[in-house]
Description:
By secondary structure, the protein is an alpha/beta fold.
Amino acid sequence: MLLPIRYSLSIFADMKREITKTADGSTTIYIPEMDENYHSHHGAIQEARHVFIKHGLESLVQEDITVFEMGFGTGLNALLTLEFARRQKKQVRYLGLEAYPVESEMIEKLNYLEGIGKEFRNDFEAMHKAAWDQTIAIHELELTKIHQKIEEFQPKIDSIDIIYFDAFGPRAQSDMWELPVLEKMATMLKPGGILVTYCAQGQFKRHLKSLGFEIERLPGPPGKREMTRATMLA
């Protein structure tokens, strides 16, 4: 996930981070100073599968899909996307924006392969060893990790089929849920493209409506009553 804009890189580097186990047995990263997890403590893998795969990728019909992730973070969403692409025999272009990459020492302590499959070990390692701002092919996935802050990022218009909006929640990272950032999301989505997120905040959904999105309130993952899927109208 992306860090709050108010935190500088030097400040973040000094923050303590811990590996914690979530309710489904999968791990995540916890930042005590912010009281925030990179993924839901109710279950990191099951939340990501519910929000971004079940109610995101599985709702698309095209064989060739372009994904944009707001916050590459631990790479969990990218790994689950590769699993989906392999199972469904689809090709996916994946762009992950991240201002503050997770150190390799932290990545090595995560146990996602236990829940997703040890056969993805080399793929997961390749994702994290890949150079930033370059494109590599990992079987069905064409991955580009973008090392940049969202306020500096200039999106390509009408280029994305689905956005995984996975920033920290509005309480910790309010700027990410406001119009300047959401306008960039609207700009990059193709007509009919979708944005999916675990968040169901009212003001956030009103912002999306004002930008031309049609909003769906869907059942949330464990621990959340609702999530949001927003479709960019033509």
